[in-house]
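hey all, quick one before standup. I had two proteins in the batch that finished overnight and I want to keep them in one place so we stop losing track of which output belongs to which input. First protein below, input sequence then structure tokens straight from the run.
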Amino acid sequence: MSKLFTPATIRNLELKNRIVMPPMCMYSAPDGVPADWHFTHYATRAVGGTGLIIVEATGVAPEGRISDADLGLWTDGQSEALVALVAQIHANGARAGIQLNHAGRKSEVTGATIEAPEARAYDEKSRVPVAMTIADIQNTVKEFQRAAERAHRAGFDVIEIHAAHGYLLNQFLSPLTNGRTDAYGGSPQNRARFLGETLEAIGSVWPAEKPIFVRVTAEEYAEGGNLPDDLAEQLNGVKESGNGIDAVDVSTGGLMPIAPKVFPGYQLPHARIIREKTGLPVIGGGLITTPEEAEAALAEGNADFVFLGRELLRNPYWPLAAAAALGDEIAWPKQYERARPRKK
């Protein structure tokens, strides 16, 4: 059996393989609730054999969405609408996670007052945010906590906290976007305080048997920005404060308007450093497209799980084909069994 199709367990969560579909916004939920598109989109990837599907960035507040058409979890009605989506993912053989997010200064929600660590815009085309007060931070922590409660009621197996790609928690973690002089700025530990308090609040309402992931930007591609070692230090500080992190989803970029040079597996070196320096399982990737690339990421110790984004958009049945390519026998949907490649 390949490493890619070897089952794994995180806390009490059993995953049938190491393939993760990362959050990718569908921009198809104008009221913050899933549309027909979401049911087709996510259920199809479950049918295709993905082990864990993490539903797209979901706003913990209306102004915390990236766009007007993002999913939300600031009302009980939104939670109730997600119950059926989770059930579809489960019924088709995958586990379901959800990424909770606050976009901060990168929010493009119409008419919203946007917030950030300080009053600096993302770029010259973006709105200038309001610098958050201590009370604003505490209120946002409670918004994450209430969203986590709703995610549990909806039946999700995993919560992923979005602290990457230039959104609010990433803005606080980075010295490039956090020039505060209070308890939430300055030292790496202070810049990680918001994340730690968010994890503590979520941990108080999220069942102990269910894992909590954190997605991080491990390189910001700008002078003076965070690098993998810096993120590892911040994550270790959060852990040492007693806040639970069960796995780290390692990405890069998005904080500043800078396009990195990309190639297959370009984020794996960052994932390896985070893995080695925190001792936590990591999800790694970056433009991985072939079964051989995914298997190598695991076999070489760069990651414990592999995320495939664009490739799963192109081919929702990638896991079925990957198993055949790696010589693994896995269960197929009985409706598709007649299409299983036969050994010669």
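OK second protein, same deal, sequence then tokens:
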Amino acid sequence: MCGRFTLKTPIESIRRQMNLFEIRPQAPQGFHSIPRYNICPSEEILVLRKGLRSPADTARAPSVEFLTMQWGFSVEKTKRIVNTRAETLLDHERPPRGEPARRCVIVADGYYEWKQEGAHKIPYYFFRPQQKIFGMAGLWRTRKDHAENRTESCTILTVQANEKVGKIHERMPALLDIEQTLRWLEVDLRRESLQDLLIPAPNAWLQSHPVHHRINRVGIDDPQCVKPVYYDQQKSLF
């Protein structure tokens, strides 16, 4: 699963790394003006999706757009589905609880996972070499409240962990590079292509190290979150 992630990369660098896109910026003015080291469920996150178009606008293919969404499908007042097993999509061809959803990509440059060590859980930070950004395959949907207000939210798809991540946790996000992101966002993507994309990333794709358990606290969001803290030095902190 993926319960926290990072997006420290400046928006200008994100655009450069995604130069294959003609991106329409829909994110609010000033969004992601500061690095994020501990993004938590229910917060606004940066997402890529195919732009929406009116039924009358059929002459032009939908473009890719940046926008923000709330992380997690709200299913109860206090419960959110922040992760969804990819097998749910592949086996049943429907999102959680059967509600309609479409494909999107969550933009990130690292994520956290926890390893059970006796009675404690040690957080680990996973990231790409050279701090490259990556995508996490996701689903998004729109929900109306009683006042007819519309909220767009998303969930991250997870797959069985590769051998390297599996030493920490049995699941991992379905990670996408730039080319795979383009494919994931194709409107008419076939089931076989979905299966090709929803697989564990190669072992060499990610690096990792243990970090301080302070990231467990909502609101802690600073560079110390991603600094290596090794277990022998950390035992006294529990």
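Flagging for whoever picks this up: The helical segments are 11-17, 86-92, 163-166, 178-184, 191-197, 231-234. Residues 4-233 form a domain with the hypothetical protein yedk fold fold (CATH 3.90.1680.10).
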